[in-house]
């Protein structure tokens, strides 16, 4: 979903570097004699996971870390070449062809599941649908949206409702446009495609904080779902059907799509280069144990948003608040050194 070309420069890790091989008897020694390189995918949850894993690698395993910024396909190719060691969010279904080719060549491997429940849905605020006096009381399904178009009236085309789609240029925008046609909403809703993710999230936040009507697409984990999860409700769609989904994806024109289905629940993996897997078995074992959830990460991202915090600061907050979670990912001696580092932060 991201089009930015791979930048070649490497960016220093948030917590600085430790020189491998120079540690004392009391400090851990990294398995590799160079910085570990993370894929710097350009969205918030990726920044957060890189910061959490980076803090643990630095303080628990004695490793320096770096981040190579870019988007999905270029960074996957870089990992296949051995230029990137770890991708904390590998959305395999979104890059199936390139991923399968890299696996077939023995260049990359999935080592764990970061979160098993990434979601994509259409939402409305609860204040629109809950209670007898709610302006859209009775709205529960996307198939009912046409009946409530006046509630979501577009100021520029008042005879239509306004649907806030995904970001222009992303795959989800194309899918939602096909869904609008399949659900028979082309004639009753304008298809609003924000130019940036920030523009979409700002529109959602603004409408909800002012109790205004809005129907929108969103995905998780994100700060939007973390902040507003208890104030929005997902509209029902037909249960996910792989055959209908495949036909929807394959269609070139939205006008050709007459059936749609809910987005599949996506399992987001952690992947490494096979080269790195061979030289860093202890780190790979940590990564195979690393597991979060959509809700957990959305809450961390909401913390970032509400406190104007960096991903590094959110990672430290997460590690300080959730020792029962992350200590299960690492051996006791690693957990002890990470805890000491957190106490000194």
Automatic annotation (TrEMBL):
> What Pfam families does this protein map onto?
OpuAC
Boundaries of every ABC-type glycine betaine transport system substrate-binding domain copy: 35-321
Alphabetically sorted, this entry's keywords are:
Signal
Quote one Gene Ontology molecular function term.
transmembrane transporter activity
GO CC annotation terms, alphabetical: ATP-binding cassette (ABC) transporter complex
Renumbered to this chain, the signal peptide range is: 1-25
Can you name this protein?
Glycine betaine/proline transport system substrate-binding protein
Organism of provenance: Amorphus orientalis
């Amino acid at each position: 979903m991201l089009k930015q070309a791979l930048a070649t420069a490497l960016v220093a890790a948030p917590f600085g570097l430790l020189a491998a091989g120079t540690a004392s008897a009391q400090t851990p020694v990294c398995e590799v004699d160079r910085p570990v390189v993370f894929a710097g995918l350009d969205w918030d949850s990726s920044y957060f996971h890189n910061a959490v894993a980076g803090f643990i690698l630095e303080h628990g395993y004695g490793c320096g870390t770096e981040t190579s910024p870019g988007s999905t396909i270029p960074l996957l190719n870089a990992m296949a070449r051995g230029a990137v060691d770890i991708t904390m969010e590998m959305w395999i279904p979104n890059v199936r062809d390139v991923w399968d080719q890299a696996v077939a060549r023995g260049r990359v491997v999935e080592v764990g599941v970061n979160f098993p429940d990434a979601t994509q849905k259409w939402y409305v605020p609860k204040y629109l649908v809950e209670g007898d006096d709610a302006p859209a009381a009775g709205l529960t399904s996307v198939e009912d949206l046409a009946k409530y178009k006046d509630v979501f009236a577009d100021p520029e085309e008042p005879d239509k409702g306004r649907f806030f789609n995904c970001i222009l240029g992303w795959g989800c925008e194309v899918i939602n446009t096909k869904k609008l046609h399949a659900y028979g909403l082309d004639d009753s809703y304008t298809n609003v495609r924000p130019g940036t993710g920030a523009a979409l999230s700002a529109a959602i936040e603004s409408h909800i904080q002012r109790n205004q009507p809005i129907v929108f697409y969103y995905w998780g984990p994100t700060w939007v779902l973390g902040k507003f999860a208890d104030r929005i409700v997902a509209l029902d769609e037909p249960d996910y059907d792989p055959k209908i989904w495949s036909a929807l994806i394959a269609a070139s024109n939205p006008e050709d799509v007459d059936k749609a289905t809910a987005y599949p629940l996506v399992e987001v993996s952690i992947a490494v280069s096979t080269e790195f897997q061979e030289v860093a078995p202890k780190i790979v074992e940590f990564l195979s144990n690393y597991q979060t959830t959509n809700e957990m990460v959305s809450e961390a991202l909401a913390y970032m948003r509400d406190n104007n915090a960096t991903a590094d600061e959110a990672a430290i907050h997460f590690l300080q608040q959730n020792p029962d979670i992350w200590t299960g990912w690492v051996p006791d001696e690693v957990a002890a050194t990470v805890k000491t580092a957190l106490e000194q932060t």
